[in-house]
Amino acid sequence: MKKILMLLAAAAFSTAAFAQGDKVVVRDEATGAKATTTVRDNGTMKTETRTGRTEAGQKAYNTKEDVKYAGKKTGNAVEKGAKKTGKAVKKGAKAVKNKAEDVVD
User: Fold this and answer.
1) pLDDT at 20 over 80
2) What sign does the dihedral 96-102-103-105 (CA atoms) show?
3) What does DSSP assign to residue 48?
4) Average pLDDT for residues 68-81, to the nearest whole number?
């Protein structure tokens, strides 16, 4: 019963999606402007456009990008520092081991 219900739901969604027609979305990543063109079943075309970001929206977007960039730089610096520290610890442990063997001998 559950499989039949799932099959019917999938068929309903695919039919609804097929009836929508072809949709083409063009987006300008720099400004956030977006244009959507839909071709209907009867051959007519519907175009919806949205202008770019507002001034406040652009500032928020710039802040988000800056935070992302800073996070990447910080992550790389932390990773590099951890690697250097690991190497120094290994070198120090090796030196201590060698000194301990000298004292015992």
Assistant:
1) no
2) positive
3) E
4) 94
